[in-house]
Amino acid sequence: xxxxPAIDRLLGVRVLLKAExxxxxxxxxxxxxxxxxxxxxxxxxxxxxxxxxxxxxxxVALAARRFELAATVVLxxxxxxxxxxxxxxxxxxxxxxxxxxxxxxxxxxxxxxETGHPIVDAYDHPDVIAGQGSASLELIEEAERAGTPLDxxxxxxGGGGGAAGACLAAAGRPIEVYGVEPHGCDSLARSLAAGxxxxxxxxxxxxxxxxxSCVGELPFAxxxxxxxxxVRVDDDxxxxxxxxxxxxxxxxxxxxxxxxxxxxxxxxxxGTLRAPAAERLPDGVAGARRRTVGVVLTGGNVExxxxxxxxxxARPEEEVAxx
Length: 323
Known about the structure:
Layout: H1 5-11, E1 14-19, H2 29-42, E2 47-51, H3 55-66, E3 70-75, H4 81-89, E4 93-96, H5 101-115, H6 126-145, E5 152-156, H7 161-170, E6 176-182, H8 187-194, H9 217-226, E7 229-233, H10 235-248, H11 255-269, E8 292-297, H12 304-312, H13 316-322
Parallel strand pairs: 1-8, 2-3, 3-4, 5-6, 5-8, 6-7
Helix pairs in contact: 2-3, 2-6, 3-4, 6-7, 7-9, 10-11
């Protein structure tokens, strides 16, 4: 759980960051992958199949290696080279297929039928949702132990499994959970408005892990009544959050992982994260309590070239602020 005074000042609230970019495998997807694969191994399965844009496939590959299972992972043809290399290094057979989730799912199902190995779905798998949710649960509990319980929790949304897990982790507590999606990759926001899962044609974005074409059905069933709202952010806002993490905390997050902070910055801009006027008291007055917001930095698997490009694009005012 990390803090940076500069980030607190920008948002006007206490910000607690969960550094899942430091996980083995580079993302919080390790949690769902390990939990789901461990249960399949215990049930006697000899292998697993997975598809994703990258981090879930890497997590399943690493989990399969730990439990000595065969693994086949299906990635898009434009997957980040870093994520492809990580999956192969973990011993998985990597299959590149198309650019959409439908194309990847079709190949994954064919591999399942050929091998008899079950699919560990990135979104619609209860064990994956539970595993991903443990990151939020740890952040919630650690904040409580520190005497700064969360008022809000913000995290990026791809297929919705992590956000659904966060909502389950926050159940019974007065915590508002917000999801963050890139503009044009906002299946969850559109689905909540329509009352049913709505697919989208994902727009180009630097947040490659947040561009599934549709939120998962199981995550949506959880999120539709528990999520406080969805924030849409653009690439400039994600890049700003990326640089803020890099310069203020010396933390390297991938753009998808930094999107949660970008969403929190947007929420702070419109005043959503501040306490209601009736609750506000001047600093030092008895009973005053600063609002606390948790942000999950979901991953850190990013190409070196993209790091260089985003870091070099810092605006002059950002450089002055750091100096």
